[in-house]
Design a protein that fits this description.
Elements: E1 5-9, H1 18-25, E2 30-34, E3 50-53, H2 69-81, E4 86-89, H3 91-99, E5 104-115, E6 118-119, H4 121-124, E7 138-146, E8 153-157, E9 165-168, E10 172-175, H5 187-192, H6 194-199, H7 205-234
Parallel strand pairs: 1-2, 1-3, 3-4, 4-10
Antiparallel strand pairs: 5-7, 6-8, 8-9, 9-10
């Protein structure tokens, strides 16, 4: 296994964000595989020190319309079975949940904007303690949700979404929310999702921008602490 981190990216602005800085400080190279622009069958699923599947505006159950999902599911299945560090964010977490046998489906309510996480006792005892709602808020942008996979540990929720974060063993972590968001790089999120913003009652670009400018910096600090601790616990992206 090499020290490289493989990040599977569906849309250009949903990248590793603040988490990429942590990897850079550890001297770990990140290789982005952009869905639709690169062959998903090419990467060795067990070669990277860490594989991250990032977010995107499609459903984890939309294989018929988006055939690029199938090789990602296959990659995740092989990697998780091998016991290797794997992180999913938003769509990535939904795909991990699906690989682990859980149902993924449209949520009753779309969740877009800032809301604090409510951690479970297991979440408080994990690296996610830095993301507790008493310390920082969290950014959300999703219309789908998932059931907790068998054998998974429930870590966090919000009033709108029960399953915001989970772990599976010590090597798999899924976030329905977006701890990676960076305030200074938020504008592309608004531009890329302009159609959805306009079509969603109660969602306003001006408010999202203002809230992110206010709440984003504290989340960046908390997310970096969480990611650092999880990397060490999972044995991923070790320092040189």
């Amino acid at each position: 296994m090499n020290r490289e981190v493989l990040a599977i990216r569906h849309v250009y602005f949903e990248d590793l964000g603040s988490l990429e800085r942590v990897l850079g400080e550890r001297g770990v190279a990140v290789r982005y595989l952009d869905v639709g622009l690169a062959r998903l069958t090419a990467p060795d699923p067990v070669a990277a020190s860490l594989t991250v599947v990032l977010g995107g505006p499609i459903g984890a159950f939309d294989d018929a319309a988006y055939p690029t999902l199938k090789p990602i599911l296959s990659l995740l299945e092989k990697r998780i079975a091998a016991g290797l560090p794997t992180l999913g964010i938003c769509l990535g977490a939904q795909l991990i949940a699906r690989v682990l046998g859980a149902r993924v489906y449209p949520a009753a309510t779309q969740e877009v904007g800032w809301a604090p996480l409510r951690l479970t006792a297991a979440g408080q005892a994990s690296p996610l303690r830095h993301l507790d709602g008493a310390h920082t808020s969290m950014f959300h942008w999703h219309g789908d949700t998932f059931d907790l996979p068998d054998g998974a540990t429930h870590l966090a929720s919000t009033p709108v979404c029960e399953n915001q974060a989970f772990s599976w063993g010590s090597h798999v972590l899924g976030f329905q929310c977006h701890p990676e968001i960076r305030a200074e790089r938020f504008e592309p999120w608004l531009i890329g999702n302009a159609g959805e913003i306009a079509a969603t009652p109660g969602v306003d670009a001006l408010q999202l921008r203002a809230d992110t400018a206010c709440l984003g910096p504290a989340l960046e600090v908390a997310a970096r602490k969480t990611f650092e601790e999880w990397l060490d616990a999972a044995g991923a992206a070790k320092r040189k």
